[in-house]
């Protein structure tokens, strides 16, 4: 029986991933509870299980005192000295009281305690495992939905994806495999609760670490990230090695690396810019794909005043201010964007201009992909066509003048006829 007992402990250790020592301690506590229930709850007992043979023994513990009040807990000094002359007051003497059998009720009590201790130990191990993984990325399978809360199976525990942490427009179906970011791990009465997120900027960072080996090995460092989940994101990267292009490393051959992340985030657009220790240049890079004329940094107010060409103003601000908002989050600076004409009317001089007083465009560290360059050039060209007010004005004026001359001549002819008729009447 003892051999079978040890084998059962080994099986539990493999199945539950709980150490054998924890299981034995749980069984010892269960036997103490069972003994007290069967043989007196006031007794002070200790249970010892031999780790090699599996045999267990129960010891009753008594304090050495002068006057005995409760014989179940105390023993007189004289009686103690008959056992061993070295005993003194306040010493503890143990007597073996191992029973032949515990009985059915005691055995059931022991079983409940063992199961409860194993469950607590399992929950404790799960909590320790996932609490150490806060800020990490996990992969799980969607199990069910309750009140817009999504429960994701992570293997040993179910994680909760709250509505506020779900991407806008993203649908979750049973059996879908998703990646998420561990935000927090809580201890509850039902065990550890893992809170995950699909909208946290940390998810973007961890996905790039998985896809880009240069970030994982430390060659390329991801300095900052800003995100509006489901719509658009920006990340700033920096290379410790001058021979490694951080933007190119993140984009990957033919854009494969960044495309894999875009697919995981359900089509979310990602801007990759080069980080720079100069705040002005970093702000200019962060506003890409817009072209920037100059950036003035106001340290006291933590404000960056940016001047852009007139036709680039809407591109710099972005749809509903999205580009400027993401750039501000990325850099940590408040960004005030003015067009070139606005800057001239307000007499705002940029910090970078040449001897003739003309603005010098920033040479951005970010090299645009071909499709982005074509898109910007097409945008500029279409804007210029609409913006050529002088040509349109001359053409409209010339047509207006011709029409006006013709109508004027007809009016004069009509007037002359009217005067002749008047003369005849008179």
From TrEMBL:
It is found in: Cytoplasm. GO terms for biological process: DNA-templated transcription termination; transcription antitermination. Keywords: Cytoplasm, RNA-binding, Transcription, Transcription antitermination, Transcription regulation, Transcription termination. The keyword RNA-binding applies. One of its GO terms (cellular component) is cytosol. Residues 380-406, 414-426 have a biased composition (Acidic residues). Residues 135-199 form the S1 motif domain. Signal peptide: none annotated. It comes from the Bacteria. The keyword Methyltransferase does not apply. GO terms for molecular function: DNA-binding transcription factor activity; RNA binding. Residues 380-426 are annotated as: Disordered. Belongs to the NusA family. Monomer. Binds directly to the core enzyme of the DNA-dependent RNA polymerase and to nascent RNA. Participates in both transcription termination and antitermination. This is Transcription termination/antitermination protein NusA.
